[in-house]
Amino acid sequence: MLKTNISDTWLNDEPASAMTLALDVVESLYGLAERDQAEVALFALEQELARHFAEQEQITGHDLLAAVFGPLGFAGDWERFFSVDNCVISEVLSRRRGIPVTLAIVLLYLCERFNIHAEGIGFPGHFLVRIGEGEHSEIIDPFTGKALTRDKMKLMLRGARGNLATLKPVHLAQVSPSEILTRLLNVSKGAFIHHQQLEQALMCCELLLKLKPDCPFERRDRGFLYQQLDCHQLASEDFEYFIEQCPDDPVSDVLKVQMLALDSIPQTLH
């Protein structure tokens, strides 16, 4: 059984970038050695970019995008989009492949290091990045490194929210590092569940509950994972919490049946 050994102080201070939080996730999932390897890869990437721009006095957002998605070889992983490797920042740095949120984390970090203004945008269904400020800014798809038109974003929104969805300023608002982390952990949790890596999915639930400890839906998801990992008492406790907090949710009736079934199963000690 997975030991969810997460420091109670890991999110006490707001980090300067989402990259720090993504590295914290790597350490929580795979240990300090894996984090160290990721930091080495990140430093090597910075040095590679510095050499690429050695003869330029000023570096623009377009310059950075051209380098990252050109000679440096970063790209969206079309073929293995739902792979766990695309969610773990150490693997993204190693393979130079990822999904929108992880490639955005890399891009935001590099923009910060090279003094280029950039913001993460929690767009529905597809994380985006704004590079530049004011009327000179552009919204970038970090999966391709290309700028998006407003019409393209409208189509993307309808794909995520339905044909009646209307593009609003809230869809293009800047999000904080902790909000980026929440997005990353939710995507990672889904990927781990898809690949039946339930202990790692459970760790993602634990980390999400560090961010929002009273969220009944995270408790519900953790309960389902505990159930599949044969931790019946822990599953029942999470299901009971969800039922108390969301008595009118249709899932509550299902969970009541689940709890009766769990009560009839002998406890397994872990």
Description:
The chain has helices at 18-30, 32-52, 61-68, 89-95, 100-113, 150-161, 177-194, 198-211, 216-228, 232-245, 250-263, and strands at residues 75-76, 97-98, 118-121, 128-131, 138-141, 146-147. It is α+β, with helices and mostly antiparallel strands and 270 residues long. It has two domains: 18-172, C8orf32 fold; 214-263, no CATH class. The strands form two sheets. A four-stranded antiparallel β-sheet has the order 3-4-5-6, with helices on one face. Strand 1 (75-76), helix 4 and strand 2 form a beta-alpha-beta unit. The chain is globular and about 70 Å long. The termini are close together. Mean pLDDT is 91; it is low at 1-5.
Chain-wise SSE layout:
Layout: H1 18-30, H2 32-52, H3 61-68, E1 75-76, H4 89-95, E2 97-98, H5 100-113, E3 118-121, E4 128-131, E5 138-141, E6 146-147, H6 150-161, H7 177-194, H8 198-211, H9 216-228, H10 232-245, H11 250-263
Parallel strand pairs: 1-2
Antiparallel strand pairs: 3-4, 4-5, 5-6
Helix pairs in contact: 1-2, 1-7, 2-4, 7-8, 8-9, 9-10, 10-11
Quick structural summary:
By secondary structure, this protein is of the alpha+beta class.
Would you count the extended β strands for me?
6
Distance between the termini: 7 Å
Mean pLDDT comes to: 91
Provide the number of structural domains: 2
Q: Strand pairing plus helix content: what structural class?
A: alpha+beta
Organism: Oceanisphaera pacifica
Protein name: Tetratricopeptide repeat protein
Domain Protein SirB1 N-terminal: 41-186
Family: Belongs to the UPF0162 family.
